[in-house]
From TrEMBL:
Residues 1-20 form the signal peptide. Pfam families: Peptidase_S37 (PF05576). The keyword ATP-binding does not apply. This is Peptidase. Keywords: Hydrolase, Protease, Signal. The keyword Metal-binding does not apply. The lineage of its organism: Bacteria, Pseudomonadati, Bacteroidota, Bacteroidia, Marinilabiliales. InterPro entries: AB_hydrolase_fold (IPR029058), Peptidase_S37 (IPR008761). It comes from the Bacteria.
Length: 431
């Protein structure tokens, strides 16, 4: 009898151990590996997280026609804890960094970083441009977010910077219920292939004295172009640059880009601009420091071809005004970015998507917090919310394209944090 009792107790003990093992919560990596169409690898990444993973999602080229083929999309996951919020860094290009972004630090959140289709590690085998549009990209992000929401069930926030900010807007337009809040940073919303509001901004931004000094510098460059061309040639040879439009036009473009770059990045003071009677070598050195010729270099352009395709066909761009320098230029029309695709037909722009998104922003969009810098050239085409009080826009006085929440004056920063706390229904430790 005692032996039988011992055997029964032993069997029950083994069963209890087995049952406990079965009911133990699965590790994060196990849960990730169970997601469909995903490969998982643990990497070092940002060591401020307790765990860090690199994921590759198998995505359809065409979400409405799976037979069109697939590609692998790179996604990074920084994990603190299942119960914490999730910030999704939606990239407009490739993934620039594995580190936590401003919002992730502010909210002490997990972070998901999604590379944009047709960039770097998320490149299809064949570059069929018809599958590169805001609807297909938003469907990519939707699939990733929905997969991870099976694991992380606290608050979800999307964010992105510049084109990543644009992409954040488009994702929310197509999938408004995917997340609780969105925070696009310095995101333009262009309404034309070459949006003329850029020119209006450059004609009014900052002080008249500074704008005049910028114009005088550009004018001095064009007047000294004969002496600057040999300098440009030597510079291009040293750096290994080549230009599909030719050296002289590349130099023209760099000079025309100067005013845009000056206000976009804000890293140059007006008093640092050389006077118009400065020798050509000093003019050139300053030019390439602010408006580098690599912006027009064929090799430098290759990683961003997908951006230019989108800009010229759907999300808009800007042009360079010729009239102010007509005496020194032979071009009949304002210069566009069609030089990026020198051997291809001119891309036709379809404004329908941007018009629809604009109408949505001014009517139905909600819990979107927009961050801009006042002097940033891209703020010329910032979202205009009109009467939509369900969203908020904050403009950092004299801020540039690098504007973040931490750069705002204390009272404005306090209001931003307060807005996020209200929308997320959670306290935020604002250090």
């Amino acid at each position: 009898m005692n032996k039988l009792r011992t055997k029964i107790f032993s069997l029950l003990f083994v069963l209890s151990i087995g049952l406990a093992a079965c009911t133990q919560p699965k590790s994060l990596v196990e849960r990730l590996e169970q997601l469909p169409d995903v490969t998982v690898q643990k990497i070092s990444g940002d060591t401020s997280y307790t765990e860090y993973y690199e994921l590759y999602f198998t995505q359809p080229l065409d979400h409405e026609n799976p037979e069109a083929g697939t590609f692998k999309q790179r996604v990074l996951l920084g994990h603190h804890a299942i119960e914490k919020p999730m910030v999704v860094e939606i990239q407009g290009y490739n993934i620039w960094t594995e580190r936590a972004g401003e919002l992730s630090k502010l909210l002490d959140a997990n972070q998901l970083t999604i590379e944009h289709r047709y960039f770097k590690n998320s490149m299809p085998d064949s570059l069929d441009w018809k599958y590169l549009n805001i609807k297909q990209a938003a469907a990519d992000q939707h699939k990733v977010i929905q997969a991870l929401k099976n694991i992380y069930q606290n608050k979800w926030i999307t964010t992105g910077i510049s084109k990543g900010g644009q992409t954040t807007i488009y994702h929310r337009f197509f999938y408004p219920n995917d997340v609780d809040v969105s925070v696009p940073y310095v995101a333009p919303h262009n309404l034309a292939r070459e949006d003329k509001r850029i020119h209006e901004h450059l004609a009014s931004v900052g002080s008249k004295e500074c704008r005049d000094k910028i114009y005088d510098f550009q004018l001095a460059c064009f007047k000294n172009k004969k002496n600057m061309l040999p300098l440009a040639k030597a510079h291009a040879e040293e750096k290994g640059y080549s230009f599909s439009m030719g050296l002289e036009k590349a130099l023209d473009l760099s000079i025309l880009e100067y005013s845009f770059a000056f206000w976009q990045w804000g890293g140059t003071k007006c008093e640092d601009i050389p006077s118009s009677d400065t020798e050509a070598s000093v003019l050139f050195q300053h030019l390439v420091r602010v408006s580098g010729m690599d912006f027009f270099d064929e090799i430098s352009l290759k990683p961003s071809l997908a951006f230019y395709h989108q800009a010229l066909s759907q999300i808009g761009m800007y042009s360079y005004e010729i009239e102010p320098f007509k005496a020194y230029l032979d071009y009949e029309e304002d210069l566009t970015f069609d030089h990026v695709f020198p051997n291809e037909p001119i891309r036709k722009f379809n404004p329908e998507a941007m018009i629809e998104v604009n109408q949505w922003l001014q009517s139905d969009a909600e819990r979107m917090l927009f961050i801009y810098g006042e002097w940033d050239t891209w703020s010329a085409t910032a979202v205009d919310l009109k009467e939509n009080t369900k969203c908020k826009k904050f403009v950092n006085p004299e801020g540039a394209h690098g504007t973040r929440i931490r750069h705002f004056p204390p009272e404005m920063k306090k209001e931003i944090i307060k807005t996020l706390e209200k929308w997320l229904e959670m306290p935020i430790a604002n250090e």
